[in-house]
Design brief:
It is built from 11 helices and 11 strands. By secondary structure, it is an alpha/beta fold. It has one domain: TIM Barrel (Alpha-Beta Barrel), CATH 3.20.20.220. It starts with a helix and ends with a helix. The site of flavin-adenine dinucleotide (FAD) has 20 residues, from strand 5, helix 5 and helix 6.
Length: 317
Protein backbone atom coordinates (compact mmCIF):
# COMPACT_ATOMS: atom_id res chain seq x y z
CA UNK A 1 0.00 0.00 0.00
CA UNK A 2 1.18 3.53 -0.72
CA UNK A 3 2.36 5.83 2.05
CA UNK A 4 -0.10 8.49 0.90
CA UNK A 5 -2.99 5.99 1.17
CA UNK A 6 -1.90 5.07 4.70
CA UNK A 7 -2.03 8.77 5.57
CA UNK A 8 -5.33 9.48 3.84
CA UNK A 9 -7.04 6.50 5.46
CA UNK A 10 -5.64 7.07 8.95
CA UNK A 11 -7.88 8.03 11.86
CA UNK A 12 -4.99 9.45 13.87
CA UNK A 13 -1.22 9.94 13.86
CA UNK A 14 0.67 6.98 12.36
CA UNK A 15 4.07 5.58 13.31
CA UNK A 16 6.93 4.81 10.93
CA UNK A 17 10.60 3.93 11.30
CA UNK A 18 13.74 4.43 9.28
CA UNK A 19 16.55 1.90 9.37
CA UNK A 20 20.01 1.58 7.86
CA UNK A 21 21.13 -1.56 6.03
CA UNK A 22 23.57 -3.48 8.25
CA UNK A 23 27.30 -3.19 7.69
CA UNK A 24 28.62 -5.66 5.13
CA UNK A 25 29.35 -8.97 6.84
CA UNK A 26 26.13 -9.07 8.89
CA UNK A 27 23.05 -10.97 7.86
CA UNK A 28 19.35 -10.14 7.57
CA UNK A 29 18.72 -11.31 11.14
CA UNK A 30 20.39 -8.15 12.39
CA UNK A 31 17.52 -6.24 10.72
CA UNK A 32 14.89 -8.51 12.25
CA UNK A 33 16.53 -8.29 15.70
CA UNK A 34 16.39 -4.51 15.37
CA UNK A 35 12.80 -4.34 14.14
CA UNK A 36 11.13 -7.16 16.10
CA UNK A 37 10.64 -5.14 19.32
CA UNK A 38 9.17 -2.22 17.32
CA UNK A 39 6.53 -4.32 15.60
CA UNK A 40 4.11 -4.06 18.51
CA UNK A 41 3.50 -0.44 17.44
CA UNK A 42 2.25 -1.61 14.05
CA UNK A 43 4.30 0.86 11.98
CA UNK A 44 2.58 1.81 8.73
CA UNK A 45 5.82 1.70 6.77
CA UNK A 46 9.56 1.31 7.22
CA UNK A 47 12.11 3.34 5.30
CA UNK A 48 15.46 1.84 4.35
CA UNK A 49 18.29 4.26 3.61
CA UNK A 50 20.65 3.97 0.64
CA UNK A 51 24.41 4.27 1.00
CA UNK A 52 26.54 4.84 -2.07
CA UNK A 53 29.96 3.30 -2.45
CA UNK A 54 33.01 5.15 -1.22
CA UNK A 55 36.41 5.43 -2.83
CA UNK A 56 39.35 4.60 -0.65
CA UNK A 57 43.04 3.94 -1.12
CA UNK A 58 44.52 0.55 -0.25
CA UNK A 59 48.28 0.19 0.23
CA UNK A 60 49.81 -2.52 -1.99
CA UNK A 61 52.84 -4.71 -1.17
CA UNK A 62 55.12 -2.55 -3.35
CA UNK A 63 54.22 0.57 -1.35
CA UNK A 64 52.02 2.12 -4.03
CA UNK A 65 48.32 2.78 -3.49
CA UNK A 66 45.40 1.31 -5.32
CA UNK A 67 42.04 3.12 -5.54
CA UNK A 68 39.21 0.81 -4.51
CA UNK A 69 35.46 1.28 -4.28
CA UNK A 70 33.73 -0.15 -1.24
CA UNK A 71 30.09 -0.26 -0.24
CA UNK A 72 29.82 -0.60 3.49
CA UNK A 73 26.04 -0.96 3.64
CA UNK A 74 24.70 -2.70 0.55
CA UNK A 75 21.28 -4.32 0.30
CA UNK A 76 18.60 -1.57 0.42
CA UNK A 77 16.33 -3.14 -2.21
CA UNK A 78 16.69 -6.67 -0.85
CA UNK A 79 16.04 -5.50 2.72
CA UNK A 80 12.82 -3.79 1.58
CA UNK A 81 11.66 -7.00 -0.07
CA UNK A 82 12.62 -9.00 3.05
CA UNK A 83 10.69 -6.60 5.33
CA UNK A 84 7.57 -6.78 3.17
CA UNK A 85 7.79 -10.55 3.07
CA UNK A 86 8.67 -11.10 6.73
CA UNK A 87 6.40 -8.54 8.43
CA UNK A 88 3.81 -7.78 5.71
CA UNK A 89 4.58 -4.09 6.25
CA UNK A 90 5.23 -1.60 3.48
CA UNK A 91 8.87 -0.73 2.93
CA UNK A 92 10.13 2.50 1.41
CA UNK A 93 13.54 2.29 -0.26
CA UNK A 94 15.52 5.50 -0.51
CA UNK A 95 16.58 6.13 -4.07
CA UNK A 96 19.40 8.59 -4.70
CA UNK A 97 20.88 10.36 -7.73
CA UNK A 98 24.51 9.97 -6.60
CA UNK A 99 26.38 7.08 -8.20
CA UNK A 100 23.61 6.13 -10.64
CA UNK A 101 23.05 6.87 -14.30
CA UNK A 102 19.50 6.98 -15.63
CA UNK A 103 19.63 3.46 -17.05
CA UNK A 104 20.71 1.98 -13.72
CA UNK A 105 17.94 3.96 -12.03
CA UNK A 106 15.37 2.65 -14.47
CA UNK A 107 16.54 -0.92 -13.89
CA UNK A 108 16.34 -0.42 -10.12
CA UNK A 109 12.78 0.93 -10.46
CA UNK A 110 11.80 -2.07 -12.59
CA UNK A 111 13.28 -4.42 -9.96
CA UNK A 112 11.37 -2.65 -7.18
CA UNK A 113 8.15 -2.86 -9.14
CA UNK A 114 8.64 -6.58 -9.78
CA UNK A 115 9.14 -7.02 -6.02
CA UNK A 116 5.77 -5.37 -5.33
CA UNK A 117 7.27 -2.19 -3.84
CA UNK A 118 5.10 0.86 -4.61
CA UNK A 119 6.91 3.48 -2.56
CA UNK A 120 10.16 5.39 -3.01
CA UNK A 121 11.76 8.33 -1.22
CA UNK A 122 13.70 10.22 -3.90
CA UNK A 123 16.79 12.10 -2.85
CA UNK A 124 19.83 13.65 -4.39
CA UNK A 125 22.33 12.14 -1.96
CA UNK A 126 25.32 13.95 -0.53
CA UNK A 127 28.67 14.56 -2.18
CA UNK A 128 30.87 11.47 -2.35
CA UNK A 129 33.56 11.38 0.38
CA UNK A 130 36.26 12.34 -2.17
CA UNK A 131 34.25 15.30 -3.57
CA UNK A 132 33.66 18.76 -2.10
CA UNK A 133 30.35 19.28 -3.89
CA UNK A 134 27.82 16.82 -5.17
CA UNK A 135 28.60 15.70 -8.70
CA UNK A 136 26.08 13.90 -10.84
CA UNK A 137 27.12 10.58 -12.36
CA UNK A 138 27.72 10.86 -16.14
CA UNK A 139 24.25 10.27 -17.61
CA UNK A 140 22.73 10.64 -14.13
CA UNK A 141 20.67 13.22 -12.29
CA UNK A 142 21.84 16.49 -10.75
CA UNK A 143 18.89 17.16 -8.41
CA UNK A 144 16.25 15.07 -6.69
CA UNK A 145 13.60 16.68 -8.91
CA UNK A 146 15.25 15.16 -12.01
CA UNK A 147 15.12 11.69 -10.43
CA UNK A 148 11.52 12.35 -9.38
CA UNK A 149 10.64 13.15 -13.01
CA UNK A 150 12.13 9.83 -14.10
CA UNK A 151 9.97 7.97 -11.54
CA UNK A 152 6.96 10.01 -12.66
CA UNK A 153 7.68 9.14 -16.29
CA UNK A 154 7.69 5.45 -15.42
CA UNK A 155 4.35 5.96 -13.66
CA UNK A 156 3.14 7.22 -17.04
CA UNK A 157 4.65 4.29 -18.94
CA UNK A 158 7.49 6.40 -20.36
CA UNK A 159 10.78 4.47 -20.42
CA UNK A 160 14.21 5.61 -21.54
CA UNK A 161 13.99 3.50 -24.71
CA UNK A 162 11.72 5.58 -26.89
CA UNK A 163 10.61 2.57 -28.92
CA UNK A 164 8.83 1.06 -25.87
CA UNK A 165 5.18 1.81 -26.61
CA UNK A 166 2.42 1.12 -24.10
CA UNK A 167 5.04 0.49 -21.42
CA UNK A 168 3.78 -0.81 -18.07
CA UNK A 169 2.80 2.08 -15.82
CA UNK A 170 4.31 1.74 -12.39
CA UNK A 171 2.41 3.19 -9.43
CA UNK A 172 5.11 4.68 -7.30
CA UNK A 173 4.09 6.89 -4.43
CA UNK A 174 6.89 9.43 -4.23
CA UNK A 175 8.26 11.04 -1.09
CA UNK A 176 10.86 13.83 -1.01
CA UNK A 177 13.04 15.43 1.67
CA UNK A 178 12.37 18.82 3.28
CA UNK A 179 14.52 20.83 5.68
CA UNK A 180 12.88 22.86 8.48
CA UNK A 181 16.26 24.47 9.17
CA UNK A 182 17.14 24.81 5.44
CA UNK A 183 19.26 22.52 3.31
CA UNK A 184 22.86 23.42 4.05
CA UNK A 185 23.66 24.39 0.46
CA UNK A 186 20.61 26.58 -0.08
CA UNK A 187 21.31 30.33 -0.01
CA UNK A 188 18.23 30.89 2.19
CA UNK A 189 15.08 29.14 3.39
CA UNK A 190 12.85 30.90 0.83
CA UNK A 191 14.89 29.61 -2.12
CA UNK A 192 15.00 26.14 -0.60
CA UNK A 193 11.20 26.23 -0.27
CA UNK A 194 10.82 27.32 -3.90
CA UNK A 195 12.79 24.24 -4.99
CA UNK A 196 10.78 22.07 -2.59
CA UNK A 197 7.57 23.39 -4.18
CA UNK A 198 8.94 22.44 -7.60
CA UNK A 199 9.42 18.85 -6.34
CA UNK A 200 5.81 18.81 -5.12
CA UNK A 201 4.51 20.34 -8.36
CA UNK A 202 6.47 17.69 -10.27
CA UNK A 203 4.56 14.93 -8.46
CA UNK A 204 5.87 14.39 -4.90
CA UNK A 205 3.06 12.94 -2.79
CA UNK A 206 4.49 13.88 0.60
CA UNK A 207 7.54 15.33 2.36
CA UNK A 208 9.66 13.79 5.13
CA UNK A 209 11.67 16.30 7.11
CA UNK A 210 15.26 16.27 8.17
CA UNK A 211 15.51 15.65 11.92
CA UNK A 212 14.86 18.62 14.20
CA UNK A 213 14.95 19.01 17.98
CA UNK A 214 12.82 22.12 18.28
CA UNK A 215 9.19 21.59 17.30
CA UNK A 216 8.75 25.32 16.74
CA UNK A 217 11.02 24.95 13.68
CA UNK A 218 8.81 22.19 12.27
CA UNK A 219 5.61 24.17 12.87
CA UNK A 220 7.13 27.26 11.27
CA UNK A 221 8.33 25.17 8.31
CA UNK A 222 4.85 23.71 7.77
CA UNK A 223 3.36 27.20 7.88
CA UNK A 224 5.91 28.53 5.38
CA UNK A 225 5.26 25.54 3.10
CA UNK A 226 1.51 26.20 3.18
CA UNK A 227 2.10 29.89 2.41
CA UNK A 228 4.29 28.84 -0.54
CA UNK A 229 1.47 26.65 -1.85
CA UNK A 230 2.89 23.28 -0.72
CA UNK A 231 -0.14 21.34 0.41
CA UNK A 232 1.05 17.71 0.69
CA UNK A 233 1.49 15.97 4.08
CA UNK A 234 4.72 16.89 5.87
CA UNK A 235 6.02 14.02 7.99
CA UNK A 236 8.28 15.06 10.90
CA UNK A 237 11.51 13.04 11.18
CA UNK A 238 12.96 12.61 14.68
CA UNK A 239 15.99 11.10 16.30
CA UNK A 240 17.11 10.65 19.91
CA UNK A 241 20.38 12.06 21.24
CA UNK A 242 22.20 9.30 23.09
CA UNK A 243 25.72 10.57 23.81
CA UNK A 244 27.56 13.84 24.41
CA UNK A 245 29.56 13.65 21.20
CA UNK A 246 26.35 14.05 19.21
CA UNK A 247 26.06 17.63 20.48
CA UNK A 248 28.77 18.42 17.93
CA UNK A 249 28.38 15.58 15.44
CA UNK A 250 24.68 16.16 14.70
CA UNK A 251 24.99 19.88 13.85
CA UNK A 252 28.09 19.18 11.74
CA UNK A 253 26.58 16.22 9.88
CA UNK A 254 22.95 17.23 9.53
CA UNK A 255 23.18 21.02 9.77
CA UNK A 256 20.53 21.35 12.47
CA UNK A 257 20.64 23.16 15.82
CA UNK A 258 20.34 21.59 19.25
CA UNK A 259 18.17 23.83 21.48
CA UNK A 260 19.97 25.40 24.44
CA UNK A 261 17.71 23.75 27.04
CA UNK A 262 18.58 20.34 25.64
CA UNK A 263 22.31 20.95 25.24
CA UNK A 264 22.53 22.35 28.81
CA UNK A 265 20.80 19.27 30.20
CA UNK A 266 23.08 16.95 28.22
CA UNK A 267 26.23 18.78 29.29
CA UNK A 268 25.23 18.21 32.93
CA UNK A 269 25.03 14.41 32.39
CA UNK A 270 27.68 12.25 34.06
CA UNK A 271 27.56 9.32 31.59
CA UNK A 272 25.89 8.05 28.40
CA UNK A 273 23.14 6.41 30.42
CA UNK A 274 22.17 9.85 31.74
CA UNK A 275 22.33 11.31 28.24
CA UNK A 276 20.05 8.55 26.96
CA UNK A 277 17.53 9.36 29.69
CA UNK A 278 17.58 13.09 28.82
CA UNK A 279 17.48 12.33 25.07
CA UNK A 280 14.51 10.00 25.50
CA UNK A 281 12.60 12.47 27.69
CA UNK A 282 13.15 15.15 25.05
CA UNK A 283 11.99 12.86 22.24
CA UNK A 284 8.90 11.83 24.21
CA UNK A 285 7.99 15.48 24.82
CA UNK A 286 8.59 16.35 21.16
CA UNK A 287 6.49 13.40 19.99
CA UNK A 288 3.60 14.15 22.35
CA UNK A 289 3.42 17.76 21.21
CA UNK A 290 3.56 16.81 17.53
CA UNK A 291 0.90 14.16 18.00
CA UNK A 292 -1.33 16.63 19.81
CA UNK A 293 -0.88 19.03 16.88
CA UNK A 294 -2.20 16.27 14.59
CA UNK A 295 0.86 15.50 12.47
CA UNK A 296 0.16 12.72 9.94
CA UNK A 297 3.00 10.42 11.02
CA UNK A 298 5.70 10.30 13.70
CA UNK A 299 8.73 9.09 11.76
CA UNK A 300 11.67 7.88 13.85
CA UNK A 301 15.26 7.55 12.65
CA UNK A 302 16.08 4.45 14.66
CA UNK A 303 19.78 4.26 13.63
CA UNK A 304 20.57 1.33 15.87
CA UNK A 305 18.66 2.82 18.82
CA UNK A 306 15.61 0.58 18.70
CA UNK A 307 15.29 0.34 22.50
CA UNK A 308 15.10 4.11 22.98
CA UNK A 309 12.60 4.42 20.16
CA UNK A 310 10.60 1.58 21.71
CA UNK A 311 10.55 3.29 25.12
CA UNK A 312 9.58 6.58 23.49
CA UNK A 313 6.73 5.26 21.35
CA UNK A 314 5.45 3.28 24.35
CA UNK A 315 4.93 6.58 26.21
CA UNK A 316 3.47 8.39 23.23
CA UNK A 317 0.86 6.02 21.78
P1 LIG B 1 17.57 18.32 -3.68
O1 LIG B 1 16.10 18.43 -3.53
O2 LIG B 1 18.09 18.05 -5.05
O3 LIG B 1 18.19 19.67 -3.13
C1 LIG B 1 19.60 19.78 -2.93
C2 LIG B 1 19.99 21.26 -2.89
O4 LIG B 1 19.85 21.83 -4.19
C3 LIG B 1 19.13 22.13 -1.98
O5 LIG B 1 19.97 23.12 -1.42
C4 LIG B 1 18.10 22.75 -2.90
O6 LIG B 1 17.62 24.00 -2.41
C5 LIG B 1 18.92 22.91 -4.17
N1 LIG B 1 18.17 22.76 -5.41
C6 LIG B 1 17.17 21.88 -5.67
N2 LIG B 1 16.79 21.99 -6.97
C7 LIG B 1 17.59 22.93 -7.52
C8 LIG B 1 17.71 23.49 -8.84
N3 LIG B 1 16.92 23.10 -9.84
N4 LIG B 1 18.67 24.43 -9.06
C9 LIG B 1 19.49 24.84 -8.05
N5 LIG B 1 19.41 24.36 -6.78
C10 LIG B 1 18.47 23.42 -6.53
N6 LIG B 1 21.17 10.63 1.68
C11 LIG B 1 21.60 9.43 1.23
O7 LIG B 1 22.67 9.35 0.62
N7 LIG B 1 20.89 8.28 1.46
C12 LIG B 1 19.71 8.29 2.12
O8 LIG B 1 19.10 7.24 2.30
C13 LIG B 1 19.22 9.54 2.60
N8 LIG B 1 18.03 9.62 3.26
C14 LIG B 1 17.54 10.84 3.64
C15 LIG B 1 16.27 10.92 4.22
C16 LIG B 1 15.74 12.15 4.63
C17 LIG B 1 14.36 12.21 5.23
C18 LIG B 1 16.50 13.33 4.45
C19 LIG B 1 15.96 14.66 4.91
C20 LIG B 1 17.77 13.27 3.87
C21 LIG B 1 18.30 12.04 3.45
N9 LIG B 1 19.54 11.92 2.82
C22 LIG B 1 19.99 10.71 2.36
C23 LIG B 1 20.39 13.11 2.67
C24 LIG B 1 20.13 13.86 1.34
O9 LIG B 1 20.52 13.06 0.26
C25 LIG B 1 20.94 15.15 1.40
O10 LIG B 1 20.40 16.03 2.35
C26 LIG B 1 21.21 15.87 0.08
O11 LIG B 1 22.25 16.82 0.31
C27 LIG B 1 20.03 16.61 -0.49
O12 LIG B 1 19.07 15.76 -0.95
P2 LIG B 1 17.66 16.33 -1.50
O13 LIG B 1 16.92 15.20 -2.03
O14 LIG B 1 17.02 17.21 -0.51
O15 LIG B 1 18.21 17.22 -2.74
Amino acid sequence: MKVIDHINQAKGTLISFEILPPLKGKNINSIYDHLDPLMEFKPSFINVTYHRSEQTFKKKADGTFERVEIRKRPGTVAICAAIMNHYRIDAVPHLICGGFNKRETEDALIDLNFLGIDNVLVLRGDAAKNETFFEAEPGGHRYAIDLLRQVSNLNNGIYLEEDIRDGFRTKYCIGVAGYPEKHFEAPNLETDLEFLKKKVDAGADYIVTQMFFDNAKYFQFVESCRQTGINVPIIPGMKPITNKKQLNVIPRTFHVDIPTDLSHEILKCKNDEDVERVGTEWLVAQSKELKKAGVPVLHYYTLGKAKIIHDTVMQVM
